[in-house]
Design goal:
alpha/beta; Oligo-1,6-glucosidase, domain 2; 5-stranded antiparallel beta sheet; globular; binds 1-deoxynojirimycin
């Protein structure tokens, strides 16, 4: 697929390294494990692998608390294992994207150890230190994303430090130019080792209000929601100056050939698109999480796609994400039948799709017994239903005791039914969700209209969402039934007389449709 760069026409696949493949029998996935499974990814047909953090870390937040940006945690292997992974990825024509976590470090990072050692330490200003209010209370009302105050008092130096996440994750001060340079050196360290880009953790958090004003209360908040939502995050994130920082990161990447900058951003569409930056100087792909957040119905989805398409800046390339390690799995959210419709949606919309490991085998709901809870958020705010462990369970490769993931009990329980729901069994089942993913990816890769073509909504009603994708004379229509009822759809030009290219049930291929097509319950069709 020439003419377009890989991150536009390619498919990104996220791996949570702890849970993909254990190679040394400790119950935790690792880099050699990932390397050993690359042929599976080639066969699946994806283009780029994004791996969640693999750096040295005390693992308070499972690697999002980094204590050394330029190393590999022994749990995951060594730098030599990493270099081998890069080489093997590239040998197969794939790309490797690293997770870059610049908003905060671990409290064990040598920078923070220095910073907290005294008020006059040269690294003091690399973090965010503020005096208590006169009554000794925290400098403002900001709340941690994992609950409780976002400020931690340091007895020794008499100041509070700010942490948007755990208290073991102090926020870095991105207003400090030295810190910025140190972080750009980190980017260069990995770029020089051959990585093809970064997914930047909570990129919209990097700059905070210069005056640290209180966040206003959120009138819509309800105590069953996480505490972070009790305040509107107007001063603690999404500040105008963040775009200057992102443009600087982008310039570092632009010093290398063909690298991609992806930003993790949870904001409404109109704010999100600002992260393409002025004249597209920002993230190539500001992650678009709307398919994760939307109510799963045809009208809501049709509306959000139209609004997103309309909001994109000139030349800004769209992207879609269906799941990640922080969100309930798609099959848990919408059920096994609609998960197939969701797969078709993700892989036919205009824009780079990001898949999450295990969704292609339909991993759904997993109950985590209380004594096996790992997620620090669940430990901080138990019982609210925000435990992220269920979406982090091990990949299911075969029907063996530990699903081919490990030879011992894994760090998180396997999903129920893994004996039947695994790569080996589903590969052999012609109608499986795994084979649907393979067929969708093959079709997308082989069809310019799907990979890079234009998007045009088709007027549909009720539970059906339809759209056209076209490139030159190539034209495809997609009709998705978001309900469990059969629905007849009337077709007008140019869709009437088309043939079925793919059904989510993997049958009907080549069936010619007239001026009507009958969508079965939970069926998606691609016509062409
Ligand atoms: C977003 C990451 O995806 C999540 O897993 C992590 O807990 C927070 N950022 C803090 O780094």
């Amino acid at each position: 697929m020439p003419a377009e760069t890989w991150w536009k026409n390619g498919i990104v696949y996220q791996i949570y390294p702890r849970s993909f493949q254990d190679s040394n029998g400790d119950g935790v996935g690792d880099l050699p494990g990932i390397t050993s499974r690359l042929d599976y990814l080639v066969d699946l047909g994806i283009d780029a692998v994004w791996i969640s953090p693999i750096y040295p870390s005390p693992m308070a937040d499972f690697g999002y608390d980094v204590s050394d940006y330029c190393g590999v945690h022994p749990l995951f292997g060594t730098l030599a294992d990493f270099d081998r992974l890069v080489a093997e990825v590239h040998r197969r024509g794939l790309k490797l994207i690293l997770d870059f976590v610049p908003n905060h470090t671990s409290d064990q990072h040598p920078w923070f150890v220095e910073s907290r050692s005294s008020r006059s330490n040269p690294k003091r200003d690399w973090y965010i230190w503020r005096d208590p209010r006169p009554d000794g209370s925290p400098p403002n009302n900001w709340v941690s994303n994992f609950g409780g105050s976002a400020w931690e008092f340091d007895e020794a130096t008499g100041q509070y430090y700010y942490h948007a996440f755990l208290r073991q994750q102090p926020d870095l001060n991105w207003r400090n130019p030295e810190l910025r340079e140190a972080m750009y050196d980190v980017l260069r360290f990995w770029l020089d080792r051959g990585v093809d880009g970064f997914r930047v953790d909570v990129i919209w958090h990097l700059i905070k209000d210069a005056e640290f004003r209180d966040n206003p209360p959120n009138p819509a908040w309800h105590p069953e929601r996480p505490e972070i939502e009790s305040l509107l995050q107007v001063h603690s994130s999404d500040q105008e100056e963040v775009h200057e920082v992102i443009a600087e990161m982008r310039r570092v990447l632009d010093g290398y050939r063909d690298r991609v900058l992806i930003g993790e951003i949870y904001l409404p569409t109109e704010r999100l698109v600002a992260y393409y930056g002025k004249d597209l100087s920002g993230a190539h792909l500001p992650f678009n999480f709307q398919l994760i957040q939307t109510a799963w119905n045809a009208r809501a989805i049709a509306k959000l796609v139209d609004e997103y398409e309309a909001a994109l800046p000139q030349g800004g390339w769209p992207n879609w994400v269906l799941g990640n390690h922080d969100q309930p799995r798609i099959a848990a959210r919408v059920g096994a039948e609609q998960a197939r419709v969701a797969a078709m949606l993700l892989l036919t919309l205009r824009g780079t799709p990001t898949m999450y490991y295990g969704d292609e085998i339909g991993i759904g709901r997993v109950e985590i017994p209380p004594d096996r809870v790992q997620d620090p958020w669940e430990k901080n705010e138990p019982g609210l239903g925000f435990n992220r462990d269920p979406e982090r369970t091990p990949m299911q490769w075969d029907a063996s005791r530990f699903a081919g993931f490990s030879t011992v009990e894994p760090w998180l329980p396997l999903a129920p039914g893994h004996e039947r729901q695994n790569v080996a069994v589903l590969s052999a089942d012609p109608g499986s969700i795994l084979n649907l993913y393979r067929a969708l990816i093959r079709l997308r890769r082989g069809t310019r209209a799907l990979a890079i073509g234009d998007y045009q909504p088709i007027r549909t009603e009720g539970h059906v969402f339809g759209f056209l994708r076209s490139h030159g004379s190539e034209r495809l229509a997609v009709f998705l039934n978001l309900s469990g009822e059969p629905i007849p759809v009337k077709l007008v030009s140019p869709c009437d007389g088309m043939r079925v290219k793919l059904s989510t049930f993997l049958d009907r291929v080549d069936e010619r449709v007239g001026s009507n097509v009958a969508l079965r319950p939970n069926e998606g069709l691609i016509l062409g």
